[in-house]
Amino acid sequence: MAITPLMPVYPRCGVRPVRGEHCHLIDEDGIRYLDFASGIAVNLLGHSHPGLIGAIQNQAETLMHVSNLYGSPQGEQLAARLVEKTFADTVFFTNSGAEAVEAAIKAARAYHQHADGNPKRTELITFTNAFHGRTMATISASNQEKMHKGFLPLLEGFQYCEFDNLEMAKSMVGPKTAGFLVEPIQGEGGIRPASDAFMTGLRALCDEHDLMLVLDEVQCGVARTGTLYAYEQYGIVPDILATAKGIGGGFPFGATLATEKAARGMTFGTHGSTYGGNPLAMAAGMAVMDAVANDEFMAEVREKGERIRARLEQFIGNYPDLFELVRGKGLMLGIKMKVESRPFFVHLRDHHKLLTVAAGDNTLRVLPPLVIGDAEIDEFFEKLSAGASDYVIPEAA
Ligand SMILES: *Cc1c(COP(=O)(O)O)cnc(C)c1O
């Protein structure tokens, strides 16, 4: 047999981590890596946060899982906390980001298919280079053909519009439009923040035509950008929002947040999940909220983000052939390169033991744990500078 026991859908690299220590990963051979990838914006408290570990240990000893057939004091507590801290009136818990987006898509459709709605409104307008996950609905919501190949037919009900092009979005609204599904800051697409005018314009279109503004904050949410959710920085509120990645700090779960109005179609028996919101996930979520959902923590994220950004901007000036610009918000930063970003990301990983993430549009993603301190920031710049100075741009194939 040639196929590996682990289904070979990932081109995995040679780094094989077995242990985490705060902002570092240690691999099988004992080599230490500075982790400015955070499992792709997941480990926001780093790898050995006592509060998160303790919460999971305690809950595992007490009660790991019960069915959603029973009352959930743990789920009620975390949902109430999210409701208190956000635009939302109600929360559905999932096990992943894609499932949170799926539930968001279902809620947006069900809003219009409600008795008081307009069942012709079945289409969500989504945006070029978006990433919403790998389920059938979420790949159908993205225009990226590389994710479609081999998995046809796609699901109906998605129209693709150019990202950040408000005029085009306006022109696409028709009698079948149910709403918009958008990442306020595209992650996989290359850390591209939507403009203020675009986000406020989409909100206005939704108000005018009774459409659902659905935000995918799976990557940019949970304090990553210096506010609990990125929409706060646009001065708008969504109708529905998908969140995951950082929300469990490494424990896999997600959530779909909605206003009471937007959730009117999500009634008894319409949706569900066996594991969704189980006590173990809720304990992890409460520990993450305890750590991040306060003004001091968020102010620190903004301050560290601004400091890294200023240093990055100064740094890239030394290598005008390699780097074009820095973009992003808070600790969700991207360095757009003038050359392919992937080989440089590999160079930093293999030769300088610095973990970052490659993204679309030749962007290098810088997604450190939100708990980094001065020492980690200095180490990052040492490794990045060393990596840039000994980098040899590979010959085009
Ligand atoms: C990662 C991601 C998803 C998918 O989350 P999974 O947990 O991998 O299913 C969806 N949307 C965005 C913006 C993401 O970054």
UniProtKB/TrEMBL annotation:
SUPFAM superfamilies: PLP-dependent transferases. The keyword Glycosyltransferase does not apply. InterPro entries: AcOrn/SuccOrn_fam, Aminotrans_3, Aminotrans_3_PPA_site, Class-III_PLP-dep_AT, PyrdxlP-dep_Trfase, PyrdxlP-dep_Trfase_major, PyrdxlP-dep_Trfase_small. GO terms for molecular function: identical protein binding; pyridoxal phosphate binding; transaminase activity. Keywords: Aminotransferase, Pyridoxal phosphate, Transferase. Coiled coil: none annotated. Its cofactor is pyridoxal 5'-phosphate. GO terms for biological process: L-arginine biosynthetic process. Transmembrane segments: none annotated. Belongs to the class-III pyridoxal-phosphate-dependent aminotransferase family. NCBIfam families: argD, PRK01278.1. This is Acetylornithine/succinylornithine family transaminase. It comes from Parerythrobacter jejuensis. The lineage of its organism: Bacteria, Pseudomonadati, Pseudomonadota, Alphaproteobacteria, Sphingomonadales.
